[in-house]
Design brief:
alpha/beta, 3-stranded antiparallel β-sheet, disordered N terminus, 7-stranded mixed β-sheet, about 280 residues
């Protein structure tokens, strides 16, 4: 999620607002983030875990699917996906892409916010669920989301959830060096207001401990790793293009720091692997 944020008082996540906001950037989202140097590195790190977790023949629920990049990746690996997003325009772009890209499995795109996934009903049994790049940071009540997911996935199923972190060291250093302490510390109180395409909505930043508690008792945390610990956030793309040698070094450093205790929770994102408890 590439946003401009400032301090705000905690309030409703406003998935309807977030959906409208991302309607305004859907047409250019792949050019700005998906196909950027930083976006590619961060997504490849998530894909490496996706490939190990979900197998050919699995049926997966994806939340906040955006333009369908991850769903299409899974489809090419023979994984069927019901991919949902609150943004109608994001879903339109994703469907358009699916018409031109051949995959080895069924991919279905549906406009549906995370707050409404319970509407899918308990008859839709999935082998796992996935959410990438901060979509769940727009959810005010993660416990309700966990409750809904527990009715949609089978016992033993994996959840892979990638969220923005509470403390991003690269962001803190970047904005402090630019003399902007407010932006440097914008995540640290756990909430900020993001502005995308002129629409403001709430973004919540949880710690790993809070996320573990929110998904208990339905799910247990198996592991977590950092995404974008050495590699900076996406708004640093212009810096990356001007410093290719430094970026190459950061890319080489990323795998080691991503799994290092303490540091793995200080990247741009954190990727958590939960498993549903037996019935």
């Amino acid at each position: 999620m590439n946003t401009t944020a400032g301090a705000a008082s905690p309030g409703p996540a406003g998935f309807a607002l977030a959906g409208r906001a991302f309607d305004g950037v859907a047409a250019d989202y792949d050019k700005v983030f998906t196909d950027s140097e930083i976006g590619r590195v961060q997504r490849d790190a998530v894909w490496a875990v996706l490939a190990k977790t979900f197998r050919q023949g699995d049926r997966i629920l994806e939340l906040n699917c955006g333009t369908g990049e991850d769903a299409l990746f899974l489809g090419r690996r023979g994984v069927s996906v019901l991919a949902c997003d609150a943004s109608a325009e994001m879903v339109t772009v994703a469907r358009r892409r699916s018409f031109t890209e051949t995959t080895g499995a069924q991919i279905e795109f549906q406009q549906l916010s995370t707050e409404d996934i319970a509407d899918l009903g308990p008859t839709r049994a999935f082998d796992g669920a996935f959410s990438n790049f901060s979509g769940l940071n727009c959810v005010a009540d993660l416990q309700a989301t966990a409750d809904a997911l527990s009715t949609l996935v089978r016992p033993g199923a994996s959840l892979l959830l990638c969220l923005s972190t509470r403390y991003c060291l690269a962001e803190i250093v970047y904005f402090l060096c630019r003399g902007n302490p407010e932006k440097a510390l914008r995540r640290c109180n756990g909430y900020s207001a993001a502005n995308v395409a002129g629409i403001e909505f709430g973004v919540h930043y949880w710690t790993v401990r809070q996320l573990r508690a929110a998904f208990s008792p339905h799910f247990r945390l198996i592991s977590h790793k950092g995404i974008g610990v050495a590699v900076p956030p996406s708004y640093c793309e212009s810096w990356v293009r001007m410093h290719p040698v430094a970026f190459k070094f950061l890319r080489l450093l990323e795998p080691a720091l991503a799994s290092f205790p303490i540091l793995r929770a200080t990247g741009d994102h954190v990727l958590l692997h939960f498993e549903k408890e037996p019935a």
